[in-house]
């Protein structure tokens, strides 16, 4: 466990104030706009540490950059993520858990781990787009 510095606390609070996945650069820009003197490298390190400790969810976006979100649920979970607005919903998916365990066992694997993020368009964005 890393020590809890004012920078880590500031990053945790800034991330917790959002309900979408955000890049380190986006979070840094919003923190700077709010008057924080924190450096970009510090934001990257803090986000990485928070994800490693389970306090933040991380996913790699299509552009290869990691995005982070404050972790709401304890333990293993999955996400529904709107491609348009970034709104994210944490979900439990027992069917996926059973499927992953079964596929792993069928191939002689033990202790399977997986990440499932489902991207789509949320109802609000679909309504705006007329879909």
Walkthrough of the structure:
The protein has 131 residues and is an alpha+beta fold. It has 2 domains: 1-72, Orthogonal Bundle (Arc Repressor Mutant, subunit A); 73-131, 2-Layer Sandwich (Dna Ligase, domain 1), CATH 3.30.1490. Helix content is 41%, strand content 19%. Strands 1-3-2 form a 3-stranded antiparallel sheet. It has a 3-stranded mixed sheet with strand order 5-4-6, with no helix packed on it. Helix 1 (6-16) packs across helix 3 and helix 2 (24-33) packs across helix 3 (40-52). It is globular and about 55 Å long.
Keywords:
131 residues, alpha+beta, Arc Repressor Mutant, subunit A, Dna Ligase, domain 1, 2 domains, three-stranded antiparallel beta sheet, three-stranded mixed beta sheet, 5 helices, 6 strands
**SSE order, one letter for each helix or strand:** HEHHEEEEHEH
Query: What form results from the Cα inertia axes?
Result: globular
Order of strands side by side in the largest beta sheet? 1-3-2
CATH third-level topology of the largest domain = Arc Repressor Mutant, subunit A
**Counted beta strands:** 6
* Model regions low in confidence, pLDDT < 50 over at least 5 residues: none
Q: How much strand? A: 15-25%
Give the integer mean of the pLDDT values. 88
Major sheet, described briefly? 3 strands, antiparallel
CATH class of the largest domain: Mainly Alpha
For the record, give the distance between the C-alpha atoms at the N and C termini, rounded to a whole number. Answer: 46 Å
Structural class, from secondary structure content? Answer: alpha+beta
- Helix % is 40-55%
The CATH architecture of the largest domain comes to: Orthogonal Bundle
Please indicate the count of domains.
Answer: 2
Number of helices: 5
Q: How large, in whole angstroms, is the Cα Rg?
A: 17 Å
